[in-house]
Fold this protein.
Amino acid sequence: MTKPMKLQGRTRVIPVANVDTDMIFHNRYLHITDRVEMAPYIFDNLKGWENFPAEAQEGDILIVGHNFGCGSSRQQAVDGFLALGVSALIGESFGAIYKRNAINAGLPLIECTGVLKAEIKDRDVIMLDLETGTISGRNGTTLITGKPLSKVQTDIYFSGGLLELTR
Amino acid sequence: MPEMTLTEKIFARHTRRDTVRVGDIVMAKLDMILGTDVTVPLSVEVFRNMGAEKIFDTDKIALVNDHFVPAKDVKAAELSKIMREFAREQGVKNYFEVGRSGICHSILPDNGLIRPGDLVVGADSHTCTYGALGAFSTGIGSTDLACAWAIGELWFRVPDTTRVVVNGRFKPFVGAKDLILHIISRLGVDGAIYQAIEFTGDAFKHIFMDGRFTIANMAVEAGAKTGLIPPDDITREFMSQFPDIGGEYLRSDPDAEFTRTLDVDLEEIEPLVAEPYLPSNVRPVNEVKGVKIDQVIIGSCTNGRLEDFRAAAKIMGDHPVHPDVRLIMIPNTPRLMRELLKEELIDQFVKAGAIISPPTCGACIGGHMGVLAKDEVGLFTTNRNFRGRNGHPDSKVYLSGPEVAAATALTGRITDPRELTKDPDYYC
């Protein structure tokens, strides 16, 4: 499967620091092992974002704050976004285990200091170049540049996940 | 050969290379791979989807029933069942069934499954606890877990290290939990993100294994991949229970490069409390005292060991638990339960009005056996107080060590154990 290195999508800006894995996918749903079934429970413990799954659109790009995904080793907190069609996450920083889980699941994740201060509003359409880390507006102007995908990230992303790479 | 940190040395030994440097991406061999009843079922599905048939080594995998056990509902029972059947099918030697199981981060070291110098991964974020033995040990997700089972290796980026140098001795009623809360308040919850923390300094001559596990356990709350304590004589004494398993007692080279160094003087640390909703919201107990508490928990992978219960017992004496408080105590392992029975601490706690819980992570994660209702306030010796983690989104949790927790259980309000023991009405 060919994976695009340039993505275009609608943003969802979540300007909250330290969103932990229980806010993304609460442990009361841990019995769910099917990715599609995880989708409706994403953010049901993050005040103000409970409707996120209902409003999600294929290709959405999430813009998040510092230390997003800190907390537990919860794969569902990554898989649920994939089930909702989220195409990438751009964040000030990510919890270490969360970052690993996203890389392994083939969900592109870009670290970008200052992204919450950039001229990006909720539901804007942006373009994200994974190779350079450049984030630009619809008209092509660069808004901010994050860290590009590393080689491991790129390899796993192209394989469609660590699972495929290890197979 | 260039000077290396403890972390770099461990990676070098697991990649069959003489040296590795910070930032290197390596495939490294794993010594122990942990999974629990809430993370294993997803991994079993991934493992099957990969087309994998056999785990790489039946000795190097541990499967522990601890999160939603004894089964909290039918769905939880199904999770344990998936893990149990997988353990049988694969011939996993280190499968821990309810009754012989306990909190994974006590069960593994207490069964000699972790050696100094090991590279360990676990599908539980507090896997960093084993850093207390001088192992590099870190949390992973369920995809990683399945791949680790299949091939016994994983990719890592060798992390840089923040060094924390601790000197001095604890003042009375101050312990390992206060030390790590102090460190997290200075680093912040993402202060050591993607890094290893190495805890060192003269203070460790007086900090024994139970306290070391508490300290390493919360490294992840500063964002770190792991928290290591260089193995020494105290480590050797703990490991002497398992004379046949070996281990490598490694230390950072004198000129190894650290990203930064944080100095801590134990004399300056008082009993501390982390306020809702972050483990880094730390304040001296004196500034928070008086807050009404509905439920106190003493236990968890952070503070559910012998030293913790002894500290609580010393403060509780013959005093009853406050009528408005539910005190839940969770000894981490069956072995510890027997020890507490032998020392007659269980008798003391139950007489005081506490409830003794079987070993489970339930209450710590707001799963079962002590979940908080709307607007209730808890004071727990656990490790996280994120919004909604421990029950209703409008409940609150304060974090502390066992001394503050025990004092608070007696008064129903957050209490400084130093003041309580001076109170003329307290006859301990």
Residues 304 and 332 of chain B are 5 Å apart (CA to CA). The two ends of chain B are 58 Å apart (CA to CA). Chain B touches chain A through 52 residues (CB under 8 Å).
